[in-house]
Amino acid sequence: MTWSVLITGFTLGAAGSLHCVGMCGPLSLSLPVHHLSKPVKFLALLLYQIGRVITYSLIGLIFGLAGRSIYIAGYQQWFSIGMGVLILLVATLYFLNKKKIKITFLNNFYQSVQRVIIKILKSPTHLLSFLMLGMANGLLPCGMVYIALATTFTLHSVIESTTFMSAFGLGTLPAMMLIGYAGTLINPEIRMVFRKITPLLITVMGALLILRGLNLGIPFISPMMPQAGGAAVTCQP
Asked: Could you read off the pLDDT of 91-133 as tens digits, one per residue?
């Protein structure tokens, strides 16, 4: 099961990296790396991306702990279907209204994260600053991250949830490294096209979560979910 989690997470991250190019591209282009030598620039950009992966992994751990309680309660299958329906509803609202769905109660938190990013950008003192920037970037609002986190609730263990989010982050890494090097070659029009692809990806993930909850026995797409149960108790005479 671990391999299917790795492959699914990495695939979602790779597909979602098109969205990352559109949304996070400007931040990557603002990184103060242009004056650095090529080896140091590569290391700085890599540390920035690793920081994002670390944050995604930690969030996956937290959500995995929450999802574990859902699994133990025996609601995992129905939760997967419910999350899929909710995601399809969000995608439908986007297609109808052409507006992004915002979670307003998180705005203050996101504004605090943005202030931290701006502060680090103004005075990057060493390479670890890029690692901290990446970790902070992983906390910014992102539709694809929300979808990935919704998926972690349907996994069987905390290890799988953490692994899934790590693989998701690694899936976004190639495209984000590329934009760090050649971002100026990707004009705003192309980035806008990438952003428009996001609702389609969200729709696909919603459908996959529903299929996953249906327990159809299809590898990777709808594997059988084991039912949680306690250990058997043997009564001794």
From this structure: 777 666 655 555 565 667 777 888 888 887 776 667 888 899 8
Residue 218 lies in a domain: no
Residue 221 located in a structural domain: no
Q: Is residue 227 part of a domain?
A: no
Instruction: Single out the residue of 184, 180, 136, 139 nearest to residue 45, CA to CA.
Output: 180
| 222, β-bridge pairs | 218
Q: Are 166 and 60 in contact (CB under 8 A)?
A: yes
Please give the model's pTM, rounded to 2 decimal places. Answer: 0.74
Question: Which tokens hold the place of 147?
Answer: 């979808």
Distance (Å, rounded) from C-alpha 199 to C-alpha 95? 8
Q: In total, how many domains does the chain have?
A: 1
218 forms beta bridges with 222
Q: Say how far apart CA 52 and CA 3 lie, in whole Å.
A: 22
Cα–Cα distance, 225 to 70 (Å, whole number): 13
Domain of residue 150 covers 2-213
Phi, psi for 218 (deg, rounded to 5): -90, 120
